[in-house]
User: Fold these one by one.
Assistant:
Number 1:
Amino acid sequence: MTSQEALFNYSLRLGDTSIILAQRLCEWTGHGPFLEEDLALTNIALDIFGRGKALLEYAAKVEGKGRTEDDLAFFRTDREFFNTLITELPNGDYAKTIIRQAMIDCFDLAFYTALANSKDETLAGIAAKSIKEITYHKRHSFSWVNRFGNGTEESFNRLQQGLDEIWAFTGELFEMNETDEILIKEGIAVDLNLLKADWEKEINQLLTKANLVIPETLFMQKGSRKGLHTEHLSYILAEMQSLPRMHPNAKW
Amino acid sequence: MSKDSQGPLWEVFVQKKAGQPFVHCGNLHAFDKEMALQNARDLYTRRGEGMSLWVVPSTAIVASSPEDMGSFFEPSNDKIYRHPTFYQIPDGVGHM
């Protein structure tokens, strides 16, 4: 693998992770628990879409084959997507959406803070812009975890249920492969091993405050780094891609 | 949701720039202070409308009623001497 290919893979992975998560969150638009919260989550989704667009734009540029960010988003199949599995999981109820978001926000804040020091100027620039956005996303999701965990018996049970369903997908956030190895040597990528201890500590504190118990799962799901996904990705892609595929040159 | 459970009402005040007054801009629903502040941020400052926020439980606001209008406000109509129109206000004073 050349370092150009690695940089393409890396930008693609980050971009895919952003747009699939944003697409998932947007499913809540018009269905939020109440108007204010509906807007809050949609707002967060739009921040994440913005980041995804910038990353895919960069991936397309690095690839240098004349593809655009739209080509990458709308004209690839599920095996060509590299988003982390946790982002493609169905939203479930609001508690599950929130607990997943808290896991991801906690990871993303540490990740993009580190990526802001990347030797790659474009990635560093996108990361620097994202830090403020994610700081707010995390404040939002963490305060909801606390609220559900210390709310009623039902809100707590739903939160615990959500955690049970997503926990096995958190390990993959830290998985690395050849792409990472090449780019870490060049000072471009973030060494995910260095983020893990802090993430675990912070998540433990959050879960303890919300009275949650981490499920006893030894097995962690993985596959997305190789383009292997859950059955949920094809459906979300079908919804996301159907319009541009039907009308490839449509303009607003 | 089976019943109306949007939470109590809060009033939102936005300050555009440091030093300027906080201006009432609307209200929202929220269950606690932190949620009220976050919702205010998302509903009222998404397009750079301000740099500081107040949220106040609507029940904490004491308002005059329409019946008070006569006794409260009309006596000031014929007392021109209460208005500082006899002074030149220096330019540097700003919002007065």
Note: Residues 3-246 of chain A form a domain with the Ferritin fold (CATH 1.20.1260.10).
Number 2:
Amino acid sequence: MDKQKRVWMAVAALLLIGVYFFPIWSISMEAPQYPEGIGMNISVDTIEGKQKNDLQNINGLNHYIGMKEINPDSIPELKIMPYIFGFLIISGLVIAGIGNHKWILFWLGLFVLFAIAGLVDFYLWGYDYGHNLNPDAPIKVPGMTYQPPLLGSKQLLNINATSLPHIGFYISLISMGIAGTIWWKSKED
Amino acid sequence: MRKLLKKSLLWPLAAIAAIGFITMGCSSNGEFGSSSDAAEKVYVAPGEHDEFYGFFSGGYNGQLGVYGLPSGRHIFTIPVFSQAAVNGWGYNEETKPMLQTTDGFIPWGDAHHPELSQTNGETDGRWIFMNENNTPRIARIGLDEFRTQEIIEIPNSAGNHASSFVTPNTEYVTAATRFSIPMDEDNMQNMDVSIDSYKENFQGTISFIKVSDEGHMSIDFQIRMPGFNYDLSHSGKGPSDGWAFFTSYNSEEAHTMLEINASKNDKDYIAAINWEKAAEYAKEGKGKMIPGEHYRNYIDHEEGGIAKSELIEEVRVLDPRELEGIVYFLPTPKSPHGVDVDPTGQYIAAGGKLSTVIPVHSFEKMMTAIENEEFEGEEQGIPVLSYDSILHGEVQNPGLGPLHTEFDNRGNAYTTAFISSEIVKWDVETLEVIDRIDVYYSPGHLMIPGGDSQKPDGKYLVALNKITKDRYLPTGPEMFHSAQLIDISGEKMQLLLDFPTEGEPHYAQGIAAEKVKENQKRFYEIEDNNHPHAAKSEKETRVERDGNEVHVYMTTIRSHFAPDNIEGIKVGDEVYFHVTNLEQDWDVPHGFAMKGANNAELLVMPGETATLKWEPKKEGVFPFYCTDFCSALHQEMQGYVRVSPENSDTQISYSTGQ
């Protein structure tokens, strides 16, 4: 790998620092009683309301249907994810230093695997929250489950929930794109 | 043929209908081209906001009504001087001290003149002040939360009517005695004397209340005045900044049958007060401190949200007989009511309610007359300027019973004529009447948003009518007062809308919605709740006994109370329910009502703590519940208190769930 490609690989790795500053995923909810919307952002290490008290209010709504309380402190993945990205940044920088383009493929593969694992995990959490409801819930609609959509919109009783990637996800995509391009170009050399 | 006959028979019918329609169109409904034109101008589509906030004093309901303009929709009522069972104002432990006076707790007030705070002569949307006439007081209402934040009592006064008008940078807010009272020469204390010693003993005061940057009010000084009735006021602005003008009537100093005996003199006075100079005297320590006990009550959410009452014992009084240059009398026909200063600050219009003209004084001429000592006499040591030397001119034929004037931003003045039930538009420079419009019926004050400031919004005018009669569906002998919205953007005034107003609005204020709505609090942050009895989470809820006082630290969140089962209360206990609303979202109040409580409900805003006192008199189990339909499970939001006999040994216990 020439110097230019090594610099770009370093850029791909360093870009991922952005993931610590921007949410990766977003769930927005709309209902007539919430004219300004209500929602939450999932970041590398936490889940936060879009507005200051949104998470508390979402949990307040969810208690009617018996959904478990969303409590970021009790989700182990949020404690692991910062290290995974840390590993990707450091290993990416090491690859840029060594300059062996074959390692890029390995790095990319690992990154994509992490991403898929993350989405599967997110789906499983959504399934668990949506299906394992407290039998003492005040509101029970026969046959109704409340799993949020993985991607896109879904009507859940009076609430329209929309799940979409956020800036952190796009940063990861760009990082992957840069690394993939370098690997492709290095292969031609 | 028969067909033709039929046709011709129907024609006259159509003509009658047409005439009927035309006459309907210009009947008592006022002077607009068509009602759909007017409807379009006041229509605010569902979900849209009004262009202006209107703040209308509630008169004898003691509160402040909030209306949207141009729609006339009544959007809120702010409790001020009267207890309000609707949310517990003046009933709950937090707000009771707000109604404390040197006469004790007073549950009612007569609210007259709201006035928005100003910066550089323009309304700024920070606060609105309002006076209480019966037990002299001034309130300050914060427009960040639409709540009364401070009430100060005015000592050495009776009937606080010429109040609460602000100076152009809200340096001061004014107060004055409407009913002069006997005051002793040294300490101005009320005296046990014969009422017919009026001329000898009765005096008045004009007060200037300093407003700090945070809004805190304190009486800077009072001015001792002759025993007239001080009626209304407005501050100077621009060139006349530093002065304030107060109308007076009863220069006859009558004490009985005033409607005859106080209407004899051809001229009474406007008192021109050089407050800037008076403030300098006060700062230099001139005048003297006299006893003047009065309460300052204030409530600050950041400091725990419990009102505090502070007793202040003395006030400074300035005597214009000793301190030169602070008061001059401007002779003004005839028992003048309103005194209004135009936006340029050059002209002072008086509503001589029994006069056939509107006299307009010139500030510039007044200053020249003072300089040249053009006096026509003096009244109890106060110089009286000569009428001719201060007069800008008189508006001829202004209608009968002119009371109040407001201004637009195009050099026009608008005056209410109470007796002839009309509003008269006139040119401030030429004093010519330009237009007049009938109003229904008998207008008192009128309001143009910013119409008494240096920057009026000359789009709408509201007539605050004193007589309603047939304007709405009848509601028995007692009815709401009627306001009317008039379009003043064109040369001709156009009546747009009638809308009913709560209580008896006297004065009103209007302000562009943008200046207020961006600063609105939606709820109180629970982490900033400094109430000493707050329970900031369900973990902190508890019940504590201290002798026969029981404190319940309770929380609410959709849709349950914690605790909701309480035992160990005894007949004869004083139970304090300190209810903290844990919600942190907009428009999720919870209510609290206790069976048999001898006061009112609590309506607790998110993040706030409010306290209801309950003295159970009977044994048994008593329910409490949430009064605000807070969620689909609101009906389930309830609890029970077990009350045992006074000598029983039931221990305090409490729980939620299980």
Note: The helical segments of chain A are 3-15, 54-65, 77-98, 101-131, 167-188.
Number 3:
Amino acid sequence: METFLYLTRRVLQALVVILIVTVVVFCLLHALPGGPARGILGPQATAQQIAAFNHDQGLDRSLPVQYVYYLRTLLQGDLGTSYTLNEAVSQLIEQRLPKTLVLTVLSALVGLLLAIPLGMWQAVRRNKPVDYVVTTLSFVAYATPVYFLGLVLVLVFTQWLRWFPSQAPQGETLADVFAQPGALILPVVAGAASMVAVFSRYMRAATLENLQEDYVRTARAGGSRPRAILWQHVFRNSLTPVVAMLGYYVPVLFGGALVVEQLFNYPGMGLLFWSAAQSSDYPVLLGCVLVISVATVVGTLLADVVQRIIDPRVKAGRT
Amino acid sequence: MSANILEIENLGVTFSTESGDVPAVRGVSLHVRPGETLALVGESGSGKSTVALAAMGLLPGNARASGRASVDGTDVIGAAEAELTGLRGRTVSMVFQEPATALDPLTRIGAQIAEVVRNHRPVSARDAASSAVELLDRVGIPDPERRASAYPFQLSGGQRQRVVIAMAIANAPGLLIADEPTTALDVTVQAEILDLLRALAADSGTGVLLVTHNMGVVADFADRVAVMLEGEVVETGPVEEVLLRPSHEYTKRLLGAVPRLAVAGAGGGAEPRLAAAAGGTVPQPADAKSRRGVPETTAVAGAPAEAPVVELHDVSVRFGRGPRAVRALQDVSLTLRAGETLGLVGESGSGKSTAARVALGLVQPASGSVSLFGTGLGRARGRKRRALLAGVGVVLQDPVASLDARMSVAECVAEPLRVHRRGMPAAERRARVAEVLERVRLPRELANRGPRELSGGQRQRVSLARALVLDPRLLVADEPTSALDVSVQQTVLDVIAELQAELGFACLFVSHDLAVVQQFAQRVVVMRAGRVEEEGATAATLTHPETDYTRRLIAAVPVPDPVLQRLRRTERQAALAAAGTEGRA
């Protein structure tokens, strides 16, 4: 019951945030020079054509009225129509989003599965050669732009070693994507690299902090072996701050996807966003922004829920 | 095989730090026999905890140990981690000072106890879990089956310490090392925990190494005492010998600095008497005597028509909203007159600090009124409020946390002047700072150092200088000496008392230490669960309390005289038995 109330409250809060996002997106839409009409009809359109268009679209009404109209169409799943692709934005997103999700979720999973043990290993071997080597690699990985890393990966694994193709899976459906798992490897690795760098640092710091905690001393005094203490106590305690960070990392993952998809020619949201930005396809851009915002809000919500499961104090409001 | 469960011979421990090697323990030799309690006493930095950790093989990585320490015949110094792991929790275990952090916050307490059981016994998870429940029952946790699945944060400090003790006794160790096991607890809880440890040790013939700075705890618990000073043991002997007839100069000084609770003579004599007289050399500060009596109180109060310095009238404070709100204060009224010292005592959570914060204007009361110097604080706004609050100085418990580490001592002291006396020329400000630092007896050359370069007592005097720089009419001191060693505590209290006599400010003195309050305050207010339990002249209230609560509180304070303390303990336990078994931590 308590959990249900908590979830209801959090979902309502999330809805409020998303509503605010729609206001921002709406304002951006109207901040375009010449308005959407100029965007759609092009620079050659006459003043009459623009006025007629505005009247047709209800754009000559007051902003609040238009906002309500915008919100209503939004609720009907209508995000407008792409200027260049001549397709409903909602339909474009429907096609592309699952692919991007595959890419980002796989990158995040691979990233975390590497980063967490790596960070713990570094903490246990603090100031030993392993720690220095991994720290250096982390900083290199973090400092390397994704497009550069992607190029290096392609050069090494496609041109020289010929292990993996240089293009991501091209198919339309998810089944097509999974039919070529080898082609997914390079994009996922490129997407995961900075994640490994950042989260291994977090995990290292959190583990070091927890290794100093009194409860570790208590466990040692009780005769628990170091490895058991690390996995039974330190691991969970260190994970909580890292999970909290994860929610905020969703937009960064999408940002990474933008570059990775362009680089490996993977037809997901990132590539859609990229080409829309190239051709000033505003409805598509704004639809993407909205989707990413919602994903971020949902991501933080999930992170909070997971944290609540790991740490009973959160539930009791004691932290 | 030796008969001693713990034998330490010529132990030396050196810490390697960035500024070179620091010897922490030198040539320490001691032993603990089965069933015996040896108290290791000394002030902070004396190396007593280091000796305890060395005996557990738990010294930090930058420590090097030499000499010999053996537990039940097994050498600990230089032993491999695997060997130590087999020893810890089975042959020797440890109870720590801070129950708030000693347990893993994310693991249920039953599982944490079961882990220790399974470390050393080949039992199934289910059997270990039921042993954990039995252990919880043995350490006096009510409803152990249900509590076993609680998380540490759901327990009180006393209960957490009971869980740590349950872990320590899980495999019936021959030696129990207790490092300040009750320092973080209220006196009533302390008494219960000491009773528990004593009973457990007596039941199973466990030897105990008790590390503590509290002479009352030593008198209550120990059979023998070893006194440490700067890494060396300076005196060892039976507890009566060391506490009542100390031979070493340092032990005498240490015992002399311990504030002693004057208690009504056993059997309820009318005259309060000092709890102990270590060879008749209890140095009561000269002014302390004069400030204890009631007659002086009226003399100090001066003109009775004068408005009180602080007045809280029916103040209630709530934290949080809705059904979960905590009623921190309920209808609390107190009055403090010019020049007077009012002691505010009570257990943790009783609301004593909250009451002080209300007087400081830091906490807004939900109802009731607060006035400072005859002016209502609630209605004062802006400049007027600031002017009012400029008349109040404050000293807090933690001398490290309450000073900005990035400011020099002089800057720390000058800051109130910068805020409240904006027009003051820099030269005058410097002169004022120098004057105040001199008043609190801090050498001039410390003015340009950072707070971290000072000792705890010096830092607390910086806080005091900062509090006094504006010539306040009221000093609020919230546990000002609780983080300090006894010898340092004495000098800080002396400085406050002297300055009070000279400058005539009133003092609201919050403390959990009844002995200090008895020595320092003329009137006392005893608080309990957000309410005023009783109040009156210190001399009368703390020797002949009117309420059971205050009586229990006083009975729980261990006095540093083993003979008297034994008597007090028997009386307290008899009273508890009479009152039934209520009042478990």
Note: DSSP finds 22 helices and 22 strands in chain B.
